[in-house]
Amino acid sequence: MSEREIYALDVSSLILNRLSLYLRCLRALQEEGIHRVSSQQLADQFQLSAPLIRKDFAQFGEFGIRGTGYDIGHLIERLQSALGLDQQHPLLVVGMGRLGTALARYLGFNDATFRVVAVLDNDPAKVGQEVGDLTIRHTEEIEEIVRELGVEIGVLTVPADAAQAVYDGLVDAGVQAVLNFAPVRLQLRPGLPSKSVDFRTHLEELAYLLLSKEG
Amino acid sequence: MSEREIYALDVSSLILNRLSLYLRCLRALQEEGIHRVSSQQLADQFQLSAPLIRKDFAQFGEFGIRGTGYDIGHLIERLQSALGLDQQHPLLVVGMGRLGTALARYLGFNDATFRVVAVLDNDPAKVGQEVGDLTIRHTEEIEEIVRELGVEIGVLTVPADAAQAVYDGLVDAGVQAVLNFAPVRLQLRPGLPSKSVDFRTHLEELAYLLLSKEG
DNA sequence: CCATGTGAACAAATTCACAGCA
DNA sequence: TGCTGTGAATTTGTTCACATGG
User: Fold this and answer.
1) For position A203, what pLDDT does the model report?
2) CATH 3.40.1280.10 for domain B3-82
3) What are the two backbone dihedrals, phi and then psi, of residue A125, each rounded to the nearest 5 degrees?
4) What does the alpha-carbon distance between residue A206 and residue A204 come to, in Å, rounded to a whole number?
5) Is there contact between B67 and strand D, defined as CB under 7 Å from any strand atom?
6) What is the DSSP letter of B143?
7) Domain ranges of chain A
8) Per-residue model confidence as pLDDT tens digits over A60-73
């Protein structure tokens, strides 16, 4: 039976983010030709506790070897499968300003899991221009693009005042998840996964931490 | 008396991020000429609970009016002061690739609190080029740039394999906080505030959520 | 032995329920 | 009366301590 249905339960955002972190590290270790790792070794890397890491893994079953640690190849495989990273997720980026252009190239580069399959803008002057090996298409075409290319995830890099309308357009066109870079709080569709990345929030957090440091 | 010393205690990252979110919303309401808001109204906006929002505010003192709500202007002022957003924080961006260039323009644009005062790259071909109204300088000059311009926050947008070295260089040069966009886990200096933004982690979280939705 | 996996203890974050003040 | 501010209860997340098995 497929583990996917069993394990695709409510795993918290905190755990998911750590798993993603572990995965990056595990892939790097694998590149270096290392085959085994213990939760303690990972804990040292990440300044986390070893039991926490074991509990995170345990969300998706038992796949360590007692007394030995984890087989890196096996661990990567299981985690990737549990997170749905063993399938391709076609992305689409709307808003080919500087940030959108940079992200389109950055996110789609040389990756088996996430691949940018379309880039859109509503500026006729931009439509037809090339970004990497893709041609910018008009935002109005969004519905057929999503259908044709099986787009799963929409990336929003439009100005703040256009973000809500484009978000709605993405969802109506059949996109199943949204990653938003526009600095606004979107009115989200219930049940539709989405995340916002807000640079200003990160800077403001740092500003506060600076303050505390100086006293 | 200065509230700063009193309030600059350990406020959790979760609370800080929400405060930043509230602030954005409050500024928008202020723009619209609205003067008062209740915790319930904010809660509806953010799909959070009203007591949570009140507790968040309460970290920094009492400044609501019972039976009425909060005076938006006053609230903004107090929160900004509590977070250290009433002073300028000079930024420096290292790594003028596509992402770095986009971020330098994005972060420094028209803002009283965060201002990009220098952009750096180690590629001699890029040094001397213009990004907005700044000229790219060589990464080697980092120490004098930080000193001359009073840089507080360093933004890292260099490739993953250079990130640790540039991070160390930033810290040695006297930068007091770092915002990292390179997809690596940095070995951080204890006591020096830093945040990492990892686009892949966000995408991987969405991938998992897609999986759960489909079951 | 050694490191995993996990129930029990602990800590942190959030919600609840209501007292207190405009 | 209405909404803030907050202790108490609850939920969620993390650590501890140890039983389990290679």
Assistant:
1) 97
2) no
3) -70, -25
4) 5
5) yes
6) H
7) 3-82, 89-201
8) 999 999 999 999 99
B13 touches strand D (CB under 7 A): no
CATH number of A89-201: 3.40.50.720
For residue A75, give how far its alpha carbon lies from the nearest alpha carbon of chain B (Å).
16
Q: For the stretch B24-34, what's the b/e string if a residue is b when 16 or more beta carbons lie within 10 angstroms of its beta carbon?
A: bbbeebeeeee
CB-strand contact B65/D, under 7 Å: yes
CB contact under 8 A, B185 and A25: yes
Q: What is the mean predicted confidence (pLDDT) over A101-113?
A: 88
The DSSP-derived string for A119-130 is EEES-TTTTT-E
Determine the average pLDDT of the residues in B134-156.
98
**What's the CA B57/C1' D11 distance, rounded, in angstroms?**
22
Amino acid at A86: D
Q: Say if CB A46 and CB A66 are below 8 A apart.
A: no
Q: Which residue is nearest to nucleotide D1 (CA to C1')?
A: B67
| CA-to-C1' span, B59 to D9 (A) | 21
The side-by-side arrangement of strands in the sheet containing A36-37 is: A36-37, A69-71, A64-65
A193–B213 CB contact, under 8 Å: yes
How near does any CA of chain B get to the CA of A70, in Å?
Answer: 20
Tokens standing for B138?
């060589």
- Cα gap A45→A191, rounded to integer Å: 35
Strand partners, A92: A118, A154
Residue-averaged pLDDT of chain B:
93
Comparing CA positions, the residue from A84, A83, A106 lying closest to residue A157 is: A106
Instruction: Write the residue in A99, A153, A208 that is nearest to B102 by C-beta.
Output: A99
- Map residue A47 onto helix, strand or coil: coil
- Residue-wise DSSP of B3-45: HHHHH-S---HHHHHHHHHHHHHHHHHHHTT--EE-HHHHHHH
- State the alpha helices, DSSP H only, in chain A: 3-7, 13-31, 39-46, 50-58, 72-83, 98-108, 142-149, 160-172, 199-214
Residue A1: predicted pLDDT: 38
Instruction: List strand C contacts in A 44-83 (CB < 7 A).
Output: 50-51, 54-55, 57-58, 62-70
Average pLDDT over residues B44-69: 95
CA atoms within 13 A on the CB side of A207: 27
With CA atoms as reference, report the closest residue to A166 among A121, A107, A116.
Answer: A121
CA–C1' gap, A65 and C4, in angstroms? 7
